[in-house]
Write a structure and sequence with these properties.
2 copies of one chain form a homodimer. By secondary structure, chain A is of the alpha/beta class. The first copy, chain A, has 3 domains: about 45 residues, no CATH class; about 140 residues, 3-Layer(aba) Sandwich (Rossmann fold), CATH 3.40.50.2300; about 130 residues, Rossmann fold. Helix content of chain A is about 45%, strand content about 15%. Chain A is built from 12 helices and 12 strands. In chain A, helix 5 links the parallel strand 1 and strand 2. In chain A, helix 6 runs parallel beside helix 7. Chain A starts with 5 loop residues before the first helix and ends in a 7-residue tail after the last strand. Chains A and B meet through helix 4, helix 5, strand 2, helix 6 and helix 11 of A and helix 4, helix 5, strand 2, helix 6 and helix 11 of B. The structure holds a DNA duplex.
Chain lengths: ~325, ~325
DNA sequence: TTGAAAGCGCTAACAG
DNA sequence: CTGTTAGCGCTTTCAA
């Protein structure tokens, strides 16, 4: 219970607290001899400086906060891996906040973060977030923010994403090339950057390739499996698309389940391609064509920039979007 | 940058710091009138108490640490969800540490945690951990520890697991009932509680049902996809089992990949069942029979007990193992 | 090269 | 009911 602190080290060594403190941080004006003695005892007693106390002086908690919509999703899981690897390498700690796509929760988290618990924030915004004032408040407090994946353009900071528009375009083009004539897009909330960009890519591809003459089947899904299943069932029953481009993995899974239930053959009756980082995409029946995002790299890059900002005080986060490309991997679900 | 603190509130209200502090915590000996005034201004200015400062007095950081082997795994993802839901409900923050199955990293994390950064620890130990002194050190410092999934019996605390032995037994029995005569077990490190219990269940089922007359094909996998692939390839080529019970999802995925490459038909040539929380188990080709663990519940229960310990000072974590049952879900991969 | 002392923001004992 | 004061563990002038 009684932990070793600087005071105890000082007592044991017959030194002042100040000297010990300076020795521990390898200060220039402490003799090597003293430093050695201090270091030795610190190691022996496994002294760990109290981060809360040091925060009070330095206003740095060596902690970053990560706010995510969800975690049961391979994309975010990989992103966290990237974030964690970068953070721990630099001696930072990572607090996780899950908004569960709920704006209120996101607001509560950001509000709390004004307390100084973390030095900076990585965020992928909830799909229900349309008002960004909670983040502007954080920004005003001087907390560095880096957006990843679901970004918001009107912040003067770095955003790290993949090429959503281009990928949406290519996914749709791929379906066209595989002979689809009635292509639907299962979109994620178009108030999200990724939702709107993926949908734009879809629409542009239809137009450029002169498919469906100005028509489009764009279904904006919500954040509920039951409702989304209804929406997609309706689509399959009434619009009867021969190609589906799903903006996120979850929609593709629903499609697979529905196709099985409705005895629709993938890819014969309907071809499916989806943004996805599922490990088992190639083992599905049939193997799912995917746009695979560089999730780990996106997380790592976002974390790396945030940490750079925290460590170097005269480094400013540039107001730009860093784009790391996704890869289209065609599999049987879109075979001709 | 300049954050609102108690001092500022006090100045603005012409009250003492102590009064404001007490008013904020709704203390009995402050008049309702004063409380209202304080609360109102606090809300207006969005006052957030500094957790580091309050730690220094109260020795409570309202933070728990979660140490996990990995995160790109549906089991742990769900467990985190359970932990997070419980923690945030009680106003606690969750720091994530990923050991990546590396004992050294685990030790480094636990060592750091002696600093007071977190009030308690939830841990699922790395497969390379055989020496538990780093955790005993933490325990000595008075940090409550709760084990989940990969537990260690010789700590005087709560462990939350699933019925690994029983599930291993049932999985093997299931293969036997489906007609398998040569059943292999792909075990995770048997120095882990889960590894050893699942393997014991396997062996006991073979014995009880008098299959393979005392023989067994128990392959202890390592923590590397390439090496594991070699091990399993060897198994399929030389031992030619007609049934495989995989201790973790990753091994089952390797089996699927190898069977495809080697043109082995699942379930005709070899039947496969695996511990797994994969969302897409039923969409695989063929659908994978699983033992599905109550991962969310395990995480939640573990967190709930830890938090109870942190909140109620005369509650002691009981020295027992809480078992939440898994469910065997037969699918085509073990069909007869 | 070392030490004394102030103070980060907050809480809690005690006094008024 | 409100305020004064000391101190949590640490860093950082400033003085010796």
């Amino acid at each position: 219970m009684e932990s070793v602190n600087i005071k105890k080290l000082a007592q044991l060594l017959n030194l002042s607290i100040a000297t010990v403190s300076k020795a521990l941080r390898d200060s220039y004006d402490i003799s090597q001899e003293t430093k050695d003695k201090v270091m030795k005892l610190a190691k022996e007693l496994n002294y760990q400086p109290n981060p809360h106390a040091s925060f009070l002086r330095k206003h740095s908690s060596k902690t970053i906060a990560v706010i995510l919509p969800e975690i049961a999703n391979n994309y975010f899981t990989l992103a966290i891996n990237g974030i964690e690897s970068e953070a721990h390498e630099k001696g930072y700690h990572v607090i996780i906040y899950l908004s569960h796509e709920d704006h209120e929760r996101e607001v509560a988290f950001t509000r709390h973060l004004q307390s100084g618990r973390a030095d900076g924030v990585l965020i992928s915004v909830a799909s229900t977030t349309t008002d960004y004032s909670h983040l502007h408040d954080l920004e005003k407090k001087g907390l560095p923010i880096v957006f990843f994946d679901r970004v918001c353009e009107d912040f003067n900071t770095v955003k790290v994403t993949t090429d959503d528009y281009q990928s949406g375009y290519l996914a749709t083009k791929h379906l066209i090339e595989q002979g689809c004539k009635r292509i639907a897009h299962l979109a994620i909330s178009t108030s999200l950057s990724i939702g709107s960009n993926r949908a734009k890519g879809y629409l542009q591809a239809l137009q450029n390739h002169d498919v469906m003459s100005g028509e489009s089947f764009l279904i904006e899904c919500v954040n509920d499996n039951v409702q989304d299943t209804e929406l997609i069932k309706d689509l399959l029953l009434h619009i009867k698309p021969d190609g589906i481009f799903a903006a996120v993995e979850r929609y593709a899974i629903i499609c697979y389940e529905l196709c099985e239930a409705m005895q629709l053959n993938i890819p014969k009756d309907v071809k499916i391609i989806s943004f996805s980082n599922m490990q088992t995409a190639s083992l599905l029946n049939p193997p799912l064509s995917t746009i695979t995002q560089p999730a780990f790299e996106i997380g790592r890059e976002a974390a790396s920039l945030l940490l750079k900002k925290l460590e170097k005080k005269n480094f400013q986060l540039p107001n730009e979007t860093i784009v790391i490309q996704s890869k289209l991997i065609p599999r049987k679900s879109t075979a001709n």
